[in-house]
Design brief:
By secondary structure, the protein is of the alpha+beta class. It has two domains: 9-42; 52-152, Nuclear Transport Factor 2, Chain: A. The protein is built from four helices and four strands; from the N terminus they run H-H-H-H-E-E-E-E. It has helices at residues 9-39, 52-65, 68-72, 77-81, and strands spanning 93-103, 107-118, 126-139, 142-147. The chain has a four-stranded antiparallel sheet with strand order 1-2-3-4.
Length: 162
């Protein structure tokens, strides 16, 4: 018969404590990495300004920021002169997401999703999402917006139609 005595439970505990500390350290590191990624996202990367997508991105950003002078630089002469502007809904946020682009020699269609957020209502904030199309034409080698979705249409010196 063997007279070996099993080791006391106190000796096995330090190993479990170390593994628990390692697991908690890994979880803490993952949380810190996730926070750094979320907080450092910043602005989206600008697309090439010589592409239809880059023009739509810059035009949309200018309209959303209220910089109509900048936005006008991306419009064709025809769209600056003969447009109808409708009263835009009061919103807290408009986001534009690129869906696809169909590019031809002298024209392009840029499909986007426009998400409009409202901070009111009986159940809290709400959103409205719609797919829209920007029509672009190439003039003197540059892409310009010929028609924009109504949510992002600007017109110089025109009266708002209700």
């Amino acid at each position: 018969m063997s007279t070996e005595v099993p080791p006391p439970a106190a000796e096995a505990k330090p190993g479990r404590d170390r593994s628990l500390i390692v697991i908690l350290s890994i979880i803490g590191a993952l949380v810190v990495i996730a926070l750094v990624v979320v907080l450092s996202r910043g602005e989206p990367e600008l697309l090439d300004a010589s592409t239809p997508e880059g023009v739509v991105q810059r035009y949309s950003a200018a309209v959303i920021a209220g910089d109509e002078a900048e936005a006008m630089t991306y419009l064709t002469a025809g769209s600056r002169e003969g447009c109808d502007q409708f009263e835009r809904p009061v919103t807290d946020d408009i986001r534009v997401t690129l869906v696809s682009t169909t590019e031809r020699d002298e024209s392009a269609d840029v499909r986007v999703t426009i998400v409009t957020s409202f901070d009111s209502g009986p159940f809290g904030p709400s959103e409205y999402e719609v797919d829209e199309v920007f029509d672009l034409v190439k003039q003197n080698g540059d892409w310009l917006v010929d028609t924009a979705p109504w949510q992002l249409t600007i017109c110089p010196n025109t009266e708002v139609t209700k």
